[in-house]
Amino acid sequence: MPTPIVLITGGSRGLGRDMALQLAQQGSDIVLTYRSEAGEAKKAVAAIEALGRRAVAIPLDVGDVSTFPAFVETVRGVLARWGGAHLDALVNNAGMGIHTAFADTTEAQFDLLMNVHLKGPFFLTSALLPLIADGGRILNVSSGLARFTVPGYAAYAAMKGAIEVLSRYQAKELGARGIGVNTLAPGAIATDFGGGAVRDNAQLNGYLAGQTALGRVGEADDIGGVVASLLSPANRWINGQRIEASGGMFL
């Protein structure tokens, strides 16, 4: 049976890195992207290879649609070198956060969030469709903030809400090819995302832990395990769904 190949955007650090490692442990080869941290991407590739899997890191700015045709050709070349014709799964994970009040959000901030979190995944997925195997999987990363509200994330959460709607349309329209599409919505995670506030701000960490049924904020390992599970053959019948992995935030 051919080894599954998974492409993870933003896979060099944070949640994406843990997703890559846990999928590699599950037996997948990994294509990951990074925007600027080449050193971190190199370390992620080495960690995956240490698990006995193949890995490659490709630079990509998901907010710049004009770069997608060249990126797709690079991925096509990787697949050819690995002796495979298709990707088995795509995880649209790359992202960044801007914390600012609704009334203070600038048009430039809005456009940046839209390009990275909505326009980019929309057109990157479309560009990669010829490389995604029939029967493959797409997982779009959203946020718990699309369900509950925390002041300062109006624009970010709006983009994630749009991704959740898009995922359902993709599931419907790509179903004829047997491609399953789901949304994963993490809760508060202690990583460097958004400047590392959840990880480094003890007051914020404690508040969010107090609002979570399991009594703590999440760790990257909590999310990587969910991704590995969702992309496993055992969960192939889950399709068109929003899965929240938040430990029970704001129930």
Please, could you describe this protein's structure?
The protein has helices at residues 14-25, 38-50, 68-81, 107-128, 154-174, 197-200, 202-210, 220-230; strands at 5-8, 29-34, 55-59, 87-92, 132-141, 180-186, 242-245. By secondary structure, the protein is of the alpha/beta class. It has a single domain (5-245), classed as NAD(P)-binding Rossmann-like Domain (Rossmann fold), CATH 3.40.50.720. Strands 3-2-1-4-5-6-7 form a seven-stranded parallel β-sheet, with helices on both faces. Helix 2 links the parallel strand 2 and strand 3. Helix 4 (107-128) packs parallel to helix 5. The longest helix is centred in the middle third of the chain and has 22 residues, at 107-128. The protein is globular, with a radius of gyration of 17 Å. The relative contact order is 0.15.
